[in-house]
């Protein structure tokens, strides 16, 4: 079992039921390959840094799950085939320290703020 | 960025003039005015994390044109520069960061 996190971007103007069905499909793939889904977060519609397929915004989803190689291959194959999905990216985070994923507020990116009062839960084991 | 501090000069390894001739061919190598060696902020502060999901922190390490700022400018150590580079490239894939300056939104 490996740990994965996948972020995928959907088209911005989708109906509720379409979003639900995509979420359900994702869960179904994970369960059919004996994976374990931990969270599926909606980060909301955000502005894209550059247009993807003529879309200037996209609905971001964050998926955190455990599974094997066949699972990720199948999941990415499905995402590729689905034309509602603009972009996806999976990262294997098996060896990395687990840190809390804070809920993203669906806001358009503000300009860079100097990190002064960012309540970042510092659970970093010094793995030097 | 460029505050001159002549204390504790950073010792270049031996081999000074002769590697990377700066000026044109033949001309004597221009000595740049010495600048204080910046310390890597990620080494100094252990609770800073590098994450491709946080474009706001990564934005500090890309130029106006969207290019990755090199180590000699940003002052990162090699290890953290590698992590920054990786994170920026991942963020670019997800359109969290721009790839170039002027993406035409037509």
Record the SSE blueprint.
The complex is a heterodimer of chains A (128) and B (106).
Chain A: E1 2-10, H1 16-32, E2 36-52, E3 55-67, H2 69-81, E4 85-92
Antiparallel strand pairs in A: 1-3, 1-4, 2-3
Chain B: H1 41-44, H2 55-58, H3 71-74, H4 78-93
> Based on the structure given, which CATH architecture of chain A is correct?
2-Layer Sandwich
Residues in helix, % of chain B: 25-40%
Q: Give me the oligomer status.
A: heterodimer
Catalogue the unreliable spans of chain A. 107-128
GO molecular function, one term (chain B): structural constituent of ribosome
Biased composition (Gly residues) (chain B): 15-27
Region (Disordered) (chain B): 1-36
Organism (chain B): Oryzomonas rubra
What does this structure look like?
The complex is a heterodimer of chains A (128) and B (106). With 128 residues, chain A is of the alpha+beta class. Chain A has one domain (2-92): 2-Layer Sandwich (Alpha-Beta Plaits). Chain A contains two helices and four strands; from the N terminus they run E-H-E-E-H-E. In chain A, a hairpin with a 2-residue loop joins strand 2 and strand 3 (55-67). Chain A is globular and about 35 Å long. The model of chain A is unreliable at 107-128 (pLDDT under 50). Chain B is mostly helical and 106 residues long. Chain B has a domain at 41-94: 30s Ribosomal Protein S18. The radius of gyration of chain B is 17 Å and the shape is flat. Residues 1-19 of chain B have low confidence and may be disordered. Chains A and B meet through strand 2, strand 3 and strand 4 of A and helix 2 and helix 4 of B. Chain A: InterPro entries: Ribosomal_bS6, Ribosomal_bS6_sf, Ribosomal_S6_plastid/chlpt, Transl_elong_EF1B/ribsomal_bS6. Chain A: Keywords: Ribonucleoprotein, Ribosomal protein, RNA-binding, rRNA-binding. Chain A: It comes from Oryzomonas rubra. Chain A: One of its GO terms (molecular function) is small ribosomal subunit rRNA binding.
């Amino acid at each position: 079992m490996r740990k994965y996190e996948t972020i995928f971007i959907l088209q911005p103007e989708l109906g509720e039921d379409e979003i639900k069905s995509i979420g359900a499909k994702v869960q179904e793939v994970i369960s059919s390959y004996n994976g374990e889904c931990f969270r599926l977060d909606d980060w909301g519609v955000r502005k894209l840094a550059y247009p993807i397929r003529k879309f200037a915004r996209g609905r971001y989803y964050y998926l955190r799950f455990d599974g094997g190689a066949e699972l990720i291959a199948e999941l990415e194959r499905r995402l590729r085939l689905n034309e509602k999905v603009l972009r996806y990216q999976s990262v294997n985070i098996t060896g990395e320290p687990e840190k809390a994923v804070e809920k993203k507020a669906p806001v358009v990116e503000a300009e860079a703020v100097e990190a002064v009062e960012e309540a970042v839960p510092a659970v970093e084991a010094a793995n030097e | 960025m460029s505050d001159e501090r002549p204390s504790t000069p950073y010792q270049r390894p031996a081999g000074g003039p002769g590697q990377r001739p700066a000026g044109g061919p033949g001309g004597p190598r221009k000595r740049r005015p010495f600048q204080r060696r910046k310390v890597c902020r990620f080494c100094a502060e252990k609770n800073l994390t590098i994450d491709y999901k946080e474009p706001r922190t990564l934005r500090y390490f890309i130029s106006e044109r969207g290019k990755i700022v090199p180590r000699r400018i940003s002052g990162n150590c090699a290890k953290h520069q590698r992590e920054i580079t990786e994170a920026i490239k991942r963020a670019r894939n997800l359109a969290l960061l721009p790839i170039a300056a002027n993406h035409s939104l037509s």
